[in-house]
Hints:
β4 (about 35-40) and β5 (about 45-50) form a beta hairpin. It is globular and about 40 Å long. The chain has no helices and 11 strands. With about 120 residues, it is mainly beta. The mean pLDDT is about 95.
Amino acid sequence: QVQLVESGGGLVQAGGSLRLSCAASGRTLSSYAMGWFRQAPGKERQFVAIVSRSGFTRTYADSVQGRFTISRDDAKNTVYLQMNSLKPEDTAVYYCAANRLYTSSPGQYDYWGQGTQVTVSS
């Protein structure tokens, strides 16, 4: 079992930045690809970014490409999502998730955190 806890969400003005963290316990994250997803009210959970187990491969949703950066520190058992140039449409609950496969499909992820709210004001 892997327990994931997100932190770092909050209220920020458009154009601002936030850094989300996802701390894991129970097992080392080095065995898992790690993804970030988000869900806005009334919408389906949406892929944001994923980093491979090695950390060398990363994939981003088109909507965040060039603004968000996913990274991992396996020594700290933590994954990060640096979000820059935030827009009101980035407002959502952000979740991290762990999976042994490199996939952007949320249905294939085994472990999820509880989520952290990000609100971007215009």
